[in-house]
């Protein structure tokens, strides 16, 4: 009887030991698994695409400086004109008559001055009269010059080689002073204004080549994307405080065939940058104080690194400050992650 009792007690002790082993293992903390990458500088070429509208390199509005009936207006919209080519002729009858009168007054003043000089030589008149006659002649010459200049304004010529883009009057109409008659545009060269961020504008320089895509030419001429070449010709000196962006001009010289002012265009900037520290954008965390990442130290404990970031390219973002090359940045396993926590690294990749 006593032997059976001893056997039962041993069996119970063994069973209780077997039950305790799983419970002890269950009480052990599970490791926090993370994936990391080693921060390393890389040589990259950033690309940025911005949009804008093509403009004529130079646009000139032709106004009248004299009032008169339009006797002749030669070009129409789309016509090409050369520098100094006659564009508009106004009625000049009244000014011609005024010029003839001014010329007669000037000739009379010259005759009077010569007669007075002869009298002075013979001591027949006072020399004080000479100044008065010289003044009369100078006034007459100035009046003649004014009328001749106004008469020249009745013949309006083109100041540049251009294309007529607008015509605002017809022969027979009265053109008042400062009336808008024509608009000319130099379309042999085009320009494109684009807005870029304050981070990007500091990476650009005057003379820098860019690639341009004009959507209207893609279908008509079946060009490859960004097949048109341009050059950064001007960078405006100020930044808009509301948008934090600046403006620059792109020149297309010569303008590609088929390109016209008003067309939509895209500009691709290629920025070669050396030794840029990049991180996956998904590894970046945000707080009220800004951006940061989690890193692991030599003991596999978690630390926080506040960062200053730059330009985002694809799925990566540039690190300007706050991180050193070689540090291990956590890229996955953020759930319940806290500074000072020990983690288990399941893989290490170097980019």
Structure report:
The strands form 3 sheets. Strands 1, 14, 15, 16, 19 and 20 form a 6-stranded mixed β-sheet that branches. Strands 2-9-12-11-10-13 form a 6-stranded antiparallel barrel. It starts with a helix and ends with a strand. The radius of gyration is 43 Å and the shape is elongated. The chain is an alpha+beta fold. Helices cover 26% and strands 42% of the residues. Pfam families: Beta-barrel_RND_2 (PF25954), BSH_CzcB (PF25973), RND-MFP_C (PF25967). Residues 192-270 form the CusB-like beta-barrel domain. GO terms for molecular function: efflux transmembrane transporter activity.
Question: What labels would you give this structure?
Answer:
alpha+beta, 6-stranded antiparallel beta barrel, 6-stranded mixed sheet, 351 residues, elongated, conserved putative lor/sdh protein from methanococcus maripaludis s2 fold, 3 domains, Helix Hairpins, Elongation Factor Tu (Ef-tu), domain 3, 20 strands
State the CATH class of the largest domain: Mainly Beta
Q: Tell me the strand percentage band.
A: 35-45%
What is the rounded Rg? 43 Å
CATH domain topology of the largest domain: Elongation Factor Tu (Ef-tu), domain 3
Helix-strand pattern: HEEEEEHHEEEEHEHEEEEEEEEEE
- Secondary-structure class: alpha+beta
Tell me what the CATH architecture of the largest domain is: Beta Barrel
């Amino acid at each position: 009887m006593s032997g059976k009792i001893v056997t039962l007690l041993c069996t119970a002790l063994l069973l209780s030991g077997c039950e305790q082993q799983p419970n002890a293992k269950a009480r052990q903390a599970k490791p926090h698994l993370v994936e990391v990458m080693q921060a390393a500088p890389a040589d990259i070429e950033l690309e940025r695409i911005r949009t804008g509208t093509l403009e004529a390199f130079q646009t000139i509005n032709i106004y009248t400086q004299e009032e008169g009936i339009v006797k002749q207006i030669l070009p129409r919209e789309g016509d090409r004109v050369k520098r100094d080519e006659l564009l508009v002729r106004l009625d000049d009858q009244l000014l011609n008559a005024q010029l003839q009168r001014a010329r007669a007054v000037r000739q009379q003043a010259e005759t009077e001055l010569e007669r007075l000089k002869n009298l002075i030589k013979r001591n027949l008149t006072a020399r004080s009269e000479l100044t008065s006659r010289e003044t009369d002649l100078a006034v007459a010459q100035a009046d003649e010059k004014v009328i001749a200049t106004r008469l020249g304004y009745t013949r309006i010529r083109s100041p540049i080689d251009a294309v007529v883009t607008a015509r605002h009057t017809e022969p027979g109409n009265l053109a008042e002073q400062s009336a808008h008659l024509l608009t000319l545009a130099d379309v042999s060269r085009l320009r494109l204004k684009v807005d870029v961020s304050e981070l990007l504008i500091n990476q650009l320089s005057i003379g820098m080549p860019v690639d341009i895509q004009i959507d209207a030419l893609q279908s008509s001429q079946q060009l490859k994307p960004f097949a048109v070449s341009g050059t950064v010709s001007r960078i405006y000196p100020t930044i808009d405080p509301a948008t934090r962006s600046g403006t620059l001009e792109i020149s297309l010289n010569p303008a590609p065939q088929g390109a016209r002012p008003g067309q939509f265009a895209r500009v691709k900037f290629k920025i070669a940058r050396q030794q840029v520290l990049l991180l996956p954008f998904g590894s970046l965390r945000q707080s009220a104080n800004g951006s940061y990442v989690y890193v692991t130290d030599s003991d596999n404990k978690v630390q926080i690194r506040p960062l200053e970031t730059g330009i985002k390219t694809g799925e990566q973002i540039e690190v300007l400050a706050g991180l050193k090359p070689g540090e291990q940045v956590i890229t996955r396993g953020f759930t319940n992650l806290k500074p000072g926590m020990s983690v288990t690294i399941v893989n290490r990749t170097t980019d």
